[in-house]
Amino acid sequence: MPTLISEAARQRLKDRIAARSVAVGFADIGFTGPQGMGTAAARLNEFVALGRHGDMGWLQDRAEWRGNPAALWPDARSVIMLATDFAPPTDPLLALDMADHGAVSVYAARRDYHDVVKGRLKQLAQGLLSEARQMGITAEVKVFVDTAPVMEKPLAAKAGLGWQGKHTNLVSRRLGSWTFLGAIFTTLDLPADQPSPDHCGSCTRCLDICPTKAFPSAYQLDATRCIAYLTVEHQGQIPQQFRTAIGNRIFGCDDCLAVCPWNRFAETSQDMRLQMRGDLQLAPLTALLDLDDAAFRQMFAGTPVKRLGRDRFLRNVLVAVGNTGQMVLIDQVRALLADSSPLVRGMAVWALSCLVPAAEFAVERARHQSSEEDAQVLSEWRVSGTLV
């Protein structure tokens, strides 16, 4: 049960927590309650009902908790939202011009943010409990970072950290679009901050730049068309209609974030644990094509990319290879036609169809089609050849 404390004590405790958040490395903090999520629940339900969540069944699971944080933990009286900045040192769109290299999203070409942010959240939560004990107050806390049925972006907007822009991501006047979010739920009843107004105005840069037209309208996303979804969450082969538009993006997409005008205020994280790794952000495709499972795990250990697994990662790499038009990669692609993974074999078929003349592709089809047993790979042999 929550402990009743005076208004002055609540404000004093809030101020102390805010000061501690800076000390542990957070770039911004906001306070809100678990009730009153506005239209967030209705928007989530519509998103799922329209099938725009694709393979992300976890968005549908426990939707009642996502739309109502009070149901997730009925004893919670306050939600503390924290932002960690991770702006890139250079414009990530420049990586798209290097077709023979694979572009990894800014957030993923570094140590896994879940580990860093969760560590900070736990440190701050312990500090909150310590501050409360010193004031003779008992409290409980729970920390969340992108792995529980918590809608971090609407909560962050409600807590005054920013607003959900037309690309549906959080935008901050101080930090731009480059923020990791985390939450601390507590039984303490702390003063709430005011929500931030929307400052997108008439700007539509994020909508206009999307290569796959993943925004049906402003403030709406169809994840099944989003490159970030297709290269990270999607389980099967990437649909033909999006492959060319993906370009050399092999894990995620930064386009709609990178063009946001509010990023002129963003700063690169000073935390060494979140420093970007150039060898991961833009690796030569020829090196990536040779990765077996052990080499993949070693290369991406401790990063978000590792969770994708070697097979889906090679699927993405082969899409990028098919978009290069570089004949020098043909032998490596041919070798992957016999890979143990149907995902890899199938996308190797498409990549080969993009790199060799139609007659040569027909010869390869005749050589491999009779021994192929996977229906999806067989479909690639049939369809890819007709679209060259």
Explained architecture:
By secondary structure, this protein is α+β, with helices and mostly antiparallel strands. It contains 18 helices and 9 strands. The strands form 3 sheets. A 4-stranded antiparallel beta sheet has the order 1-2-7-4, with helices on both faces. The longest helix is centred in the first third of the chain and has 22 residues, at 113-134.
Main sheet, how many strands, which sense, barrel? Answer: 4 strands, antiparallel
| Parts with pLDDT < 50 across at least 5 consecutive residues | none
H/E series? HEHHHEEHEHEEEHHHEHHEHHHHHHH
How widely separated are the two ends?
66 Å
Helix/strand/pairing category: alpha+beta
The total of helices stands at 18
Shape: elongated
Give the fraction of residues assigned to helices.
40-55%
